[in-house]
Amino acid sequence: MKIGFIFPGQGSQYVGMGKDLYEKYDEVKKVYEDASKVLGIDVKQLSFEANEETLGQTKNTQITILTMSLGILELLKKEGIDAGVVSGLSLGEYTALIYAGYISFEDGMKIVRKRGELMQENIPTGEWQMASIIGLEDEAVEQICKEVNTGFVVPANYNCPGQVAISGEKQAVEVAMEKAKEAGARKVVPLKTSGPFHTEKLKVASDKLREELDKIEIKYNDKVKVIKNIDAKPYTEADDIIEILSKHVMSPVQYKKTLEEMLQEGVDTFIEIGPGKVLSGFVKRVNKEVKILNITDCDTLENVISTLKEEM
Q1: Which stretches of the chain drop beneath a pLDDT of 70?
Q2: CA-CA-CA-CA torsion sign (284, 179, 248, 10)
Q3: Which residues contact 172 (CB under 8 A, 6 or more apart)?
Q4: Which residues are catalytic?
Q5: Are 309 and 3 in contact (CB under 8 A)?
Q6: Rounded to whole angstroms, how far apart are CA atoms 171 and 142?
Q7: What is the Cα–Cα distance from 286 to 263, expressed in whole angstroms?
Q8: What is the pTM for the complete model shown?
Q9: Buried-exposed string 31-46: b where 16+ CB fall within 10 A, e elsewhere
Q10: So what's the pLDDT on residue 260?
């Protein structure tokens, strides 16, 4: 058995996520307390009591998802459950880098908070939208985006076979959604995001993020393989990690290829760690034969521990 951890990104959040884990486990409570101390804000209150709109603000969403995922990782560590290959979707790549020891907990919290703020504050003027197109090939979605002449829209996330998220100006995205339906898309879903993420429109945020990344320590660690969103390859010692992470916010996420790379690395048991189970669905679309588990609350945590203990 070769375990791979996968970490969700923005859009998976919900009010109350992580609450039962926080109430039951001191290790999780400590992660929330440490995160709050580092950031000077009450991460617990944001996660469990804020309304959906407040939680949905990028600057809040990213740190709350990160904190929940890191809390769960502490519980797995206690059980001796670890992974040699990891990845995350967008924000989730930072969770992966913190887990793998590339970035410290404190620096990770600070940079993710700053990343969320920069992504939120540097959205160009206008109305923006993202949407998931399900049931069309990547090339068909790319062609649809090219044909839209009412504004800016491009593919942003290549999630899994038959699922691409598009991003851009609201009107152009809506036209692309209609065209996708006409082309035979099985489903078209607007996403809970507030900007044209993973497109060239985030260039200003990308440049400012680079300045912030320069302020923290990032070091390569060969003990855990982290697969990058930007090209679906493992980080290497030769990589300019600051360059990659700054470009990350304005480059398409190659998550389908990321999962394929994890399979190439021999991963046969995927564990999604954090709110929801969106990534588990992506894995299933890429390979139905592997074991797919997820941890999002106390019940799923206990299920994963008992399942793995039987096989170890």
Answers
A1: 312
A2: negative
A3: 148, 150, 151, 152, 153
A4: 90, 198
A5: no
A6: 17
A7: 9
A8: 0.95
A9: bbebbbebbeeebbeb
A10: 98
Please tell me the predicted confidence (pLDDT) of residue 167: 96
The amino acid occupying position 126 is: G
Q: Residue 221 burial (CB < 10 Å; 0-12/13-18/19+)? A: middle
Q: Look up residue 104 and give its two tokens.
A: 């410290």
Give 105: exposed, middle or buried? Use CB within 10 Å, 0-12, 13-18, 19+. middle
Instruction: Pull the structure tokens for residue 154.
Output: 């491009």
β-pairing verdict for 3-7 and 85-88: parallel
Give the position of tokens 């945020």: 205
Question: Which residue has tokens 């980080």?
Answer: 235
* Alpha-carbon gap, residue 18 to 297, rounded angstroms: 6
Distances (CA, A) of 178 to 2, 145, 172, 184, 197: 42, 11, 10, 10, 21
Q: Is residue 119 within 8 Å of residue 197, measured between CB atoms? A: yes
